[in-house]
Amino acid sequence: MFKRSDESLIAKALNGDQHAWQQLVNRHQSALFYFGLRLLGSQEDASDLLQDVLMVLCRNLGQYRGDSSFKSWLFGIANYRAMDMLRRRKYTDSDDALAEMPAEAAEMPEQLANQQQQQQVQQQLRKLPIEQRLVLELKFYQQFTFDEIATQLAISSNTVKSRFYAALDKMRLQLESDHVEQSANF
């Protein structure tokens, strides 16, 4: 089946085509939800972020100029809204929120081990400063380039790279430390 580009769906949606609007939303809502889940830590907050971003999108779709990819523009909105939510709610990190991550596969031993590793990574991500966590999220999970992230966050590419590598170093050191502690307990 022919997959329409975001730009063609936008043009049709702006002309009142509800099916095109729904396709556009369906194409990006899952990535936006998981972005919010990893950044904010709870399904409720992720759902609130998704609704907020979609409302902004509905009101401002006509303002998309095509200077960057639609996905980059959309995640720029999501970044701004997520930071606003964190400031307004004075969000506190909670390891309990990690338990809310939905399981997507059956629990076989190798998948369980992978899930535990993913949980460790998520816990370490939550310990990072929000600026570093956001850069890792956009680079690894959303697969944006350093330049696209810089545009979204209105900072230089060098600042993005600095935050990225500093975050990786912090996570590596902490994960190595955790691994040594676990080995010592056996």
Helical residues, percent: over 70%
- Report, as a whole number of angstroms, the end-to-end distance: 54 Å
Radius of gyration: 18 Å
| Main beta sheet strand tally, sense and closure | none
Rough shape? elongated
* Count of discrete alpha- or pi-helical segments spanning 4 or more residues: 9
Number of domains: 2
Compute the number of strand runs. 0
Question: What ranges have pLDDT less than 50 throughout 5 or more consecutive residues?
Answer: 91-108
CATH class of the largest domain: Mainly Alpha
Q: Write the CATH architecture name of the largest domain.
A: Orthogonal Bundle
**Beta content:** under 5%
Structural class designation: mainly alpha
CATH-derived topology of the largest domain: Rna Polymerase Sigma Factor, Chain: A
Mean pLDDT: 82
Polypeptide structure, described:
The chain is an all-alpha fold and 186 residues long. The chain has two domains: 1-92, Rna Polymerase Sigma Factor, Chain: A; 107-186, Arc Repressor Mutant, subunit A, CATH 1.10.10.10. 76% of the residues lie in helices and 0% in strands. It has helices at residues 6-14, 18-40, 43-60, 70-89, 95-98, 109-127, 130-141, 146-153, 157-184. α3 crosses α4 and α4 crosses α8. The radius of gyration is 18 Å and the shape is elongated. Residues 91-108 have low confidence and may be disordered.
